[in-house]
Amino acid sequence: MFPVPTLIGSSRAIAGVRRAISQVASTDATVLIHGETGTGKELVASSIHAHSRRAARPFIAANCGAFVSGLAASELFGHEAGAFTGAIKRRIGRFEAAHAGTLFLDEIGELPTGLQPLLLRVLQEQIIERVGGDAVSVDVRVIAATNCDLATEVKTSRFRADLFYRLNVFPITIPPLRERREDIAVLAEQFVRQLATTHDRLVSRISPKTMELLVAHDWPGNVRELRNVIERAVIVSVSQELEVDPTWFTPSAPTTGRTWATQEKTRILEALRAVGGRIYGPGGAAHRLGLRPTTLYGKMRKHGISKEPSSWQ
């Protein structure tokens, strides 16, 4: 058996998420997880899977924002040899790989418009078609996640209403870390224990001053950003008491008159400028933002940010 993923926290908000997981896990209902970047949407999805009757079967994750243009259908549904230029052999897509298990579709709002009716058909009929091939039956539970307001995307015709309703059978919302500050200390202490072991450091506690700084910060990158800051502090630690440098924190953008999307774009541009456009590595923009590189690339496309420095102004 695989270890069951654990949601850390004592807040009422996290207790509500745990309750929702326990209610839906034993069913095959489609789940739509809402939450800002870094709140732990994949952790919630894997927890649902781990508590389901499909727990012994595959849990496959796919980031819709990272699909290469023109190859998204192949990523999800697979293709036959010769289906298009470069398709030298059959490829099994994510749906077939997740057969009898669970497929987690992260950043579902980034799914190309042309693929949305195909996904709807799979959800309704449990049948896929490999690119250049025949129909294949699959038995897959779908859990999707988004950091955008899909209801608004539906109103602006960027997302199909029928697909939204089919995905939104059982919605779960994960609140941002700034709205459950009582969980920050618990999470930070857990990360210190885990990461001190991982990096073979003697640090075992957090200084009171550092804990005050951690709890006071808004954490726009949420749990992922908190973990990254703790990991950096553990690595450079020279004593048993953890200290952090506040300059490591991502600045909390003011919310007045600004949408979350605007704040996100601003943080990405600031990170790119700060590291000279480097994406990968410990000092890269992805690490600085608490994101996977593929996720960052997807967000850059969404906000119209290219790799060229001229677009970072």
Estimated share of beta-strand residues: 5-15%
Q: Give the SSE order as H and E letters.
A: HEHEHHEHEEEHHEHEHHEHHH
- Give the % helix: 25-40%
Distance between the termini: 50 Å
Determine the oligomeric state from the structure: single chain
**CA-based gyration radius:** 21 Å
CATH domain topology of the largest domain: Rossmann fold
Question: Can you identify the CATH class of the largest domain?
Answer: Alpha Beta
Query: What CATH architecture label of the largest domain applies?
Result: 3-Layer(aba) Sandwich
Largest sheet: 5 strands, parallel
Order of strands across the main sheet: 2-3-6-1-7
Q: Could you give the count of β-strands?
A: 9
Defining traits:
globular, five-stranded parallel β-sheet, Rossmann fold, 40% helix, 3 domains, two-stranded antiparallel ribbon, Helicase, Ruva Protein, domain 3
Layout of helices and strands, plus pairs?
Blueprint: H1 12-24, E1 31-34, H2 41-50, E2 59-63, H3 72-77, H4 94-97, E3 102-106, H5 116-125, E4 127-129, E5 135-137, E6 141-146, H6 150-155, H7 161-167, E7 170-173, H8 184-198, E8 205-206, H9 208-216, H10 222-236, E9 241-242, H11 260-274, H12 285-289, H13 293-302
Parallel strand pairs: 1-6, 1-7, 2-3, 3-6, 8-9
Antiparallel strand pairs: 4-5
